[in-house]
Write a structure and sequence with these properties.
- It contains four helices and three strands.
- It is an alpha+beta fold.
- It has a domain of 51 residues.
- Helix 3 packs across helix 4.
- The chain starts with 7 loop residues before the first helix and ends with a strand.
């Protein structure tokens, strides 16, 4: 057996210490700048002629109810036909 088994009391103290911790504005800004650049996506619905811009692949995938990997593959493969015959996807 390796390591130490923490008691329930110690675990509760660690949770409380982490819960009460807040990040400064400088720290949050630094974290935000260190995050990878997001790919902005424009989605045009051919049925409703509505165009929506998304700040990331993740938000676009959630809105279309598909996996992020599907959008990633769409752009990686250089596809140009409408996705599902309904959505035109463009990188911004």
């Amino acid at each position: 057996m390796t390591g130490v088994k923490h008691s329930e009391e110690t675990i509760a103290k660690m949770r409380l210490a982490k819960f009460n911790k807040s990040l400064s504005l400088e720290t949050r800004t630094a974290i935000g700048l260190s995050v990878k650049t997001r790919i902005k996506i424009q989605v045009t619905d051919l049925e409703t002629n509505q165009t929506i811009n998304y700040n990331s692949l993740t938000s676009a995938a959630k809105a279309l109810n598909i996996k992020v990997q599907i959008l990633s593959n769409y752009f990686r493969r250089g596809q140009s036909k409408p996705y599902r015959g309904r959505y035109i996807l463009k990188k911004l």
